[in-house]
């Protein structure tokens, strides 16, 4: 039985998992449907995961904007920011 199933069944908690295992769960399940509650719990449990998720969402947003016709204007305004 996976750690995620154990967490959902109340047999395991995120608080008892090592940080490395929390990151593995994040990378494996962050886009899986139905895993939103677990991801929210991870964000609150591990500040680094929350920061990484915000940075990743911002990069995805930047990439989606860069593929639009006004790429040069967008790049000059946003891509030189520090995350």
List its traits.
83 residues, mainly alpha, 5 helices, elongated
Total strand count, please?
A: 0
Distance between the termini: 38 Å
Q: What can be said about the biggest beta sheet?
A: none
Global Rg: 17 Å
Quote the beta fraction.
Answer: under 5%
Low confidence ranges: none
Silhouette = elongated
Mean pLDDT: 78
Topology as a string of helices (H) and strands (E): HHHHH
What is the count of DSSP helices, taking H or I runs of 4+ residues?
5
Class by SSE composition:
mainly alpha
Helical percentage = 55-70%
Structure description:
By secondary structure, the chain is an all-alpha fold. The chain has five helices and no strands. The radius of gyration is 17 Å and the shape is elongated. The N and C termini lie far apart (38 Å).
Short description:
The chain is mostly helical and 83 residues long. Helix content is 66%, strand content 0%.
List the helices and strands and how they pair.
Blueprint: H1 3-8, H2 19-29, H3 36-45, H4 47-66, H5 71-78
